[in-house]
Amino acid sequence: MSFSPLTQVQRAYWAGQYNARPGAGACHFSVEYDCAALDLDRYEAAWRKVIGRHPMLRTVVTPFGYNLTFDRVPDYRIRRHALQHLEAPLRERKLRALRERISRRVPRHDRWPLLCIEAALLPDGVTRLFVGVDVLVCDVVSFSIAHHEVRRFCSHVDKSPPMPRVTFAQYVDEVDRSVPERERERARRYWLSRLEDLPDRPALPSVERPGPVRFHRLEERLDAGHWTAIKRRAGSLNVTPTAFLLAVYAEVLGEWSSMERFVLALTRHERKQVHPTVDGVIGDFRTLLIHEVDRATQGRFDDRVRATHRRLSADLEHETFSGVEVLAEKSVHAERPFATPVMFTEAIDHASDLDDGEWLGKRVHEMSRTPGIVLDHRVEVRRDACLVQWDILVSEIDIDSARRAFDRYVRRLREETAPHR
Question: Does the predicted TM-score (pTM) go above 0.85?
Fold first, then answer.
């Protein structure tokens, strides 16, 4: 076994589990597939091979806040539920209970495994596959890498993809050592100079009486034509698609909260190319960036999009002082906890790398949750289409108000990219 330090994001969310409300304490995502012809034994064997290849899938987080990686772990077993002979109403209740348990799963981070796969056997040979992953050891892009390898092992049992020649722990160490101290200090001064003027979070309409922790996902699929139009519109403004989507999101949040200035947290899935095989490594590669929105002094919408792009570019040039560090310093400066519970998460740059799992069957449900987050905007590209998702903590945020805001966001994306503009 071996120990390695947590990244700043890992540590923030690991610590956040103890400060979050009961039931919200795991950084976790889950997905379900209906599989018409799944060889469950082969699928299970494929996962065992992938777990053996990737140290972070054999990792836990100790109570003292370190990654602990085991050299060997027991053979992973997929728990199976025989529901095929049950009456339909009882079967549906069992499926809902499985979804509830796995999507709300709060694993002990110091106990392996932090991956949960279960299978419900249904009539006509269909298998409902439930997968839950603790993001502290495997982010969404890493899970896609793992699932792609599972697919290869399912299709070609004796053929292994090339092994990454670097581990996640080695990657983290190499990235840390590659940053010159003068660059760290320059980034630190940049963010500290902005601390005093950083605004607060957007004040979103909340429920009158917070209930049990529960997340709900709103989702819209923008087809390939719309995604092409978004990229074309962004290009016409000389900005990135990420900056364009972020600007539209900020517009809607500003209208929803009736605020002109506020901050968001941006989650980025970034892999520094410090090693030729880093793109095949599994781990938690997330980084956090604090983004300031100022709608009061930026003129027309096009001007605000360009301002968003400029701000994002400048902030990224100083990302060696992370969003986690900015929040800590702001909390000290403000003499109170300073948090950013509204997020923008994107995986656009990994569009060609993402395995959407559709080779297994139809994706019927997915959900994610993060400690301390009430709204997470997620966007990724699947099969040339843009999938926009809002994960909402409905025990805190009014869901009807959130639906109206989400509808405005999607409508604004369509209007801003319409051919007649």
Answer: yes
